[in-house]
């Protein structure tokens, strides 16, 4: 095995600083021929020194890890690899190595990160899916964290748009979390990539998910927060992206709902408001000369009755409305209103957004 690759696997596994990898490039054998004093000079913390000593005691751990990578059909990227995103080196602590299942080249393409809360509203899920699809059709890679809620919706929208999406995991590649995303992860790996900085057999832990957020912020060309509470993980990602000088966008949320308070705080603090998906795609495409975006042939607008137009107009102007509110505002009888709601839902123009409540689709 190449000595630098062996050293990179070991340094990555023991969570060594990036500076240690840079210092060892000329003579990586120092990592196993010298002792703990050298490791400390390289900046390894006591926990990293202990982890490294344990791995070296196993003697053939790097070789076995390479076998596990090959058996999975995955790749291990060092910072010298062409597919290692150069944007990651903007981080204060870039990853020493990356495990990738799928197409590593997806990590270096122009991208949009779509992030938000796991416990998202139907509105946020709908927006994330629409954003993912539009970004894919405009030629962008969609980055997210593979979690429930907004993350999963963004990935799925991108795949449905025929694009590449990258999921940055808080576990190793051989662990599926959440379990219900097994099929989604398989689809992502088939056209894009699953990415992790953790060695095989690493389970999820609460601290690993915020840690992986820095990779999303680092790799992204720009970041969209679809919906996040004030203390949500997406806010961590947004703060990291802001520190890196990345473009931050936020979808406005209801001020009466805590689930979107973080998104609104970002808007207050200067994030770009994302109020129209096509306009957003046009603005982020221009730096890459992709001003002409093919969204495919537009779907023919369904023929709507006068009553259906009234109901749809109310939902588009006023946002989500209850049946009682629509009855009062439209002046329609209940049977007529019920028929309108059924027809509009069948035409994919509105969706139920809660018990007895409806919202227009973007």
Describe this structure in words.
With 362 residues, the protein is α/β, with parallel strands linked by helices. The protein has three domains: 1-66, no CATH class; 104-288, Rossmann fold (3-Layer(aba) Sandwich), CATH 3.40.50; 306-360, Arc Repressor Mutant, subunit A, CATH 1.10.10.10. It contains 16 helices and twelve strands. The protein has a nine-stranded mixed beta sheet with strand order 1-2-6-5-4-3-7-8-9, sandwiched between helices. It starts with a helix and ends with a strand. Residues 287-295 have low confidence and may be disordered.
Task: Give keywords.
362 residues; Rossmann fold; 3 domains; 45% helix; 12 strands; three-stranded antiparallel beta sheet; Arc Repressor Mutant, subunit A; nine-stranded mixed beta sheet; alpha/beta
